[in-house]
TrEMBL record:
InterPro entries assigned: CheY-like_superfamily, NreC/VraR/RcsB-like_REC, Sig_transdc_resp-reg_receiver, WalR-like
Official protein name in the record: Response regulator transcription factor
Transmembrane segments: none
Keyword DNA-binding recorded: yes
Residues with PTM 4-aspartylphosphate: 56
Domain Response regulatory: 5-121
């Protein structure tokens, strides 16, 4: 099992706080940082080198799509999951074209993001090989 370092990026403190409350209970990951817009996300990625970035789509100053493009241009870029209330084919396509590795709906955020994080951490692989 791999320990994951997570960067949370969202302009709504309530959303960040709810995600942190849930994620901090998991011993196989650590929330290493938080950012409120894409500019902060780029800086945090360079400084903290997270394994995974959970990124909001729409934020002030710089949104998730532009930040994803710039972060994916960095060396050893993290796995990026775009999260949005705008859950439709067009927004999903824009996220994938920007370089996102996954897209989840904010309406089912934890339900959708947890299997991705578990897969990245290798949770469940041991049971499959035994």
């Amino acid at each position: 099992m791999r320990h994951l370092k997570i960067l949370l990026v969202d302009d709504h403190p309530g959303f960040i706080n709810a995600a942190v409350r849930h994620l901090r209970r998991l011993d196989w990951l650590t929330v290493v940082g938080m950012a409120g817009n894409g500019i902060e996300a780029i800086t945090q990625c360079e400084a903290l080198r997270p394994d995974v970035v959970l990124m909001d789509l729409a934020m002030p100053e710089m949104g998730g799509l532009q930040a994803t493009r710039l972060i994916k241009a960095q060396d050893a870029a993290p796995y990026i999951v775009i999260a949005s209330h705008f859950d439709d084919g067009e927004h999903r396509e824009h996220a994938m074209r920007a370089g996102a590795d996954a897209f989840v709906s904010k309406l089912a955020y934890l339900h959708d993001v947890m299997p991705l994080l578990e897969r990245l951490a290798g949770i469940g692989e041991q049971e499959a090989t035994e």
